């Protein structure tokens, strides 16, 4: 361990003090030229015009067979022009060149010049909605027909392999992929997380990057993969802004509305962006359960129905500042503050029925859960780009503070078969918590000759969580402190990580090879006045390799083979570790587990892509020490307990096919089919099922300003841990209209048109017993989205404020 710390200290000194002094800047434009379908264009003529001492000179180069180019320029270069017969000419003036020199590896798109005019409607070749890259699949949102579909949650269902079931996100059959915003882990969980994703407008999103096999530059956390929501970066010189309103009305349910305001200002080297979002969300969900009970009263049937109404209010403010110190260096600060509050009201009715009615029981419960989260995140970064090839040295730092004030009130009454009152219970549980997370990251990416690159970096994370849990019991018509339930839970975690990644090409095979090492030291302490205090700590070191290979089988047709491998870890979230117990309904309690171990996932894939569009992949993932909420129940008792456990091993073998088809000029079809075999084994249950899922997305261009989108999905035998979901399907429809030269965009649609998605059934298997679940929730909704863009000035490149806490905050 001392040796590891010494090596990382030496690396830090080199990265912070020695390396920046050795970097020599060079002025050059380097990148790739693509067509509107993102295929590389060769033999493009690139001309740089330079004017010095009243003399005009030209410097020219051409793209190679891969569309790549490198063109040296000087401070006297006034313009750069890209030309090729059959394509529109694209040029950049001096002001734009200054911005491009600060940007990363340049990508230039040349639209096809010959476009057909039909009734004043320009028919263009639309870029593909889905793009396959070496280490990710990209859902291209900006400029697509789903750009104004609603929220980020609405967009996720369009991603290949992504499914939303009972409020959980699945990626390729694996639950709980990590969600990132611009490379930063989403710092909210539960209702606050859903509300935030619901408040994030689809019109603000550039693309969604789906990484079932993430590279080592990302934290190793997240065995279910990563989903990175990349926000739009291009804004305008001067003052810009947008006013938006998005509203949902559940058919037979409740409303959801999200107004927001965003303003941006840029002048020369200085940029500012600020936004305010308000989200009010109300919905119902009913949960029913059934199972058999065998006890001294005979064989009985237990059933329950819990009717829930949830309200959530989110207020979010964001302020971002950046300053270009020079054409190579950028300094950025970002402040985000969110307050999430709400409540869940539950009315539960539970019954126990036996052959002899005198043993029957009925339980009625009324529960109120109130939650309030105050979250502040301050991020800062320094980025130095020595050249225009994409080399960059970064220092990223982040401080996140969170305070939760949560409590619940439980009232239960139990009756016999004659409705005589047997007993009443009333209690209040409090579970407030505070947390602080500090992260520091430094890395350097060096672009090398022959399209190679070296990426090296380190990261340090320090986390502290404090929970003060206690209960109050009713005594003589008033609530008093119950000392037997009071305890404090403190959690401390330090993670030291380093990574190395090499990217390039050899023998016509493109490669991306990486290795990440992480040392973790964790301490958990429980303090209780009535019982013996306990303290446990552990330390472990893990290596996480990632390998990506690509072989082009046909340069002309753009066909290629790809192979991928990665190893990931999922550490328990902080609420999963908290052992505090609280009531869900009359017979069910829930608690965390401070003795959880991390789960590990190894994943491998082999894929073939035809014409850079149709993709066929074989995939296998193996997960050990799998973390899952398990509802424990036994045949001789009606009571159930829900806690997180390391349940065993999961194996998932599946085939995924992505088929984008341009059926005609006005009909674009994007389809994904996923089928495989999933098996989960533990000492208490074994499940093995074949499954199928399909997502069909159809875009219809009705006119230059009007489009129609139809989306359908089907899932058969989706499985997670000891839960098997019944078949489920849905159909969505939406219209999109552009007005005022595209500045005003309106979208109107209906989610779950046939009201099928909101009726979910599942089966849970535990210790040879079967638990049947049925959920009914608000899914059929009318949705309206209005977005107006205010633009004053010229275009400039907006800088995303990068952050270092990419994997910790989401575990709060």
UniProtKB/TrEMBL annotation:
It comes from Arachidicoccus ginsenosidivorans. This is Outer membrane beta-barrel protein. It comes from the Bacteria. Pfam families: OMP_b-brl_3. Transmembrane segments: none annotated. Residues 398-788 form the Outer membrane protein beta-barrel domain.
């Amino acid at each position: 361990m001392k040796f590891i710390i010494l090596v990382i200290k030496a690396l830090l000194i080199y990265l912070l003090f020695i390396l920046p002094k050795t970097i020599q800047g060079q002025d050059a434009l380097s990148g790739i030229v693509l067509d509107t379908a993102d295929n590389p264009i060769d033999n493009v003529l690139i001309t740089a015009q330079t004017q010095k001492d009243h003399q005009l000179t030209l410097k020219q180069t051409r793209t190679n067979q891969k569309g790549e180019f490198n063109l040296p320029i000087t401070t006297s270069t006034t313009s750069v022009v890209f030309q090729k017969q059959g394509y529109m000419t694209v040029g950049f003036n001096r002001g734009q060149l200054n911005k491009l020199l600060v940007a990363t590896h340049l990508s230039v798109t040349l639209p096809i010049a010959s476009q057909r005019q039909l009734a004043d409607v320009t028919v263009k070749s639309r870029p593909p909605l889905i793009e396959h890259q070496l280490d990710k699949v990209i859902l291209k949102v900006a400029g697509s027909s789903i750009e104004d579909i609603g929220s980020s949650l609405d967009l996720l269902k369009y991603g290949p392999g992504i499914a939303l079931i009972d409020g959980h996100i699945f990626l390729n059959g694996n639950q709980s992929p990590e969600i990132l915003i611009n490379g930063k882990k989403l710092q909210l969980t539960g209702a606050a997380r859903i509300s935030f994703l619901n408040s994030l407008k689809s019109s603000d999103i550039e693309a969604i990057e789906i990484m079932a096999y993430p590279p080592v530059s990302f934290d190793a956390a997240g065995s279910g993969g990563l989903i990175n929501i990349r926000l739009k970066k291009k804004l305008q010189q001067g003052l810009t802004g947008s006013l938006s309103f998005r509203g949902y009305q559940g058919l037979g349910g409740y409303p959801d509305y999200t107004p927001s305001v965003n303003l941006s200002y840029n002048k020369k080297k200085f940029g500012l962006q600020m936004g305010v979002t308000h989200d009010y969300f109300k919905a119902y969900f009913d949960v029913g359960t059934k199972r058999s009970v065998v006890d001294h009263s005979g064989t009985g049937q237990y059933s329950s129905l819990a009717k829930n109404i949830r309200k959530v209010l989110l207020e979010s403010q964001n302020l971002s500042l950046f300053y270009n110190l020079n054409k190579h260096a950028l300094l950025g600060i970002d402040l985000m503050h969110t307050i999430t509050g709400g409540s869940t009201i539950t009315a539960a009715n539970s019954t126990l029925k036996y052959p002899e009615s005198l043993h029957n029981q009925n339980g009625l419960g009324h529960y109120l859960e109130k939650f309030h989260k105050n979250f502040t995140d301050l991020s800062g970064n320094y980025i130095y780009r020595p050249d225009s090839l994409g080399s960059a040295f970064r220092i990223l730092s982040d401080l996140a503070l969170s305070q939760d004030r949560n409590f619940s009130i439980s009232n239960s009454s139990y009756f016999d078969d004659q409705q005589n009152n047997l007993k009443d219970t009333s209690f209040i549980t409090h579970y407030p918590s505070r947390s602080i997370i500090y992260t520091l990251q430094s890395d350097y990416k060096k672009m090398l000759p022959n399209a190679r690159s070296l990426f090296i970096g380190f990261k340090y994370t320090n986390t502290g969580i404090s929970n003060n849990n206690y209960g109050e019991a009713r005594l003589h018509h008033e609530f008093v402190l119950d000392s037997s339930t009071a305890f404090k839970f403190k959690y401390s975690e330090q993670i030291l990580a380093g990574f190395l990644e090499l990217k390039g090409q050899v023998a016509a095979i493109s490669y991306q090879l990486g290795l990440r090492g992480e040392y973790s030291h964790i301490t958990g302490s429980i303090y209780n006045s009535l019982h013996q205090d306990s303290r446990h700590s552990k330390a472990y070191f893990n290596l996480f390799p990632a390998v990506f290979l690509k072989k082009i089988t046909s340069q002309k047709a753009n066909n290629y083979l790809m192979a991928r491998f990665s190893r990931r870890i999922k550490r328990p979230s902080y609420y999963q570790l908290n052992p505090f117990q609280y009531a869900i309904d009359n017979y069910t309690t829930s608690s965390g587990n401070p003795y959880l171990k991390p789960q590990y996932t190894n994943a491998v894939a082999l894929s073939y892509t035809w014409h850079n569009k149709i993709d066929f992949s074989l995939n296998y993932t193996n997960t050990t020490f799998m973390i899952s909420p398990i509802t424990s129940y036994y045949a001789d008792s009606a009571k159930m307990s829900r806690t997180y456990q390391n349940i065993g091993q999961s194996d998932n073998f599946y085939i995924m096919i992505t088929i984008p088809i341009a059926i005609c000029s006005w009909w674009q079809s994007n389809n994904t089919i996923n089928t495989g075999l999933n098996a989960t084994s533990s000492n208490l249950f074994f499940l093995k099922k074949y499954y199928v899922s399909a997502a069909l997305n159809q875009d219809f261009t009705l006119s230059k300003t009007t489009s129609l989108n139809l989306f359908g999905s089907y899932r058969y035998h989706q499985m997670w841990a000891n839960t098997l979901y019944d078949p489920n399907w849905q159909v969505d429809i939406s219209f999109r209209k552009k007005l005022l030269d595209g500045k005003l965009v309106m979208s109107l649609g209906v989610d779950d048109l046939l009201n099928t998605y909101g009726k979910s059934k599942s089966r849970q298997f535990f210790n040879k017993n079967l638990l049947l679940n049925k959920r009914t929730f608000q899914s059929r909704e009318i949705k309206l989205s209005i977005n107006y863009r205010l633009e004053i000035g010229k275009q400039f490149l907006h800088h995303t404020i990068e952050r270092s806490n990419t994997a910790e905050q989401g575990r709060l």
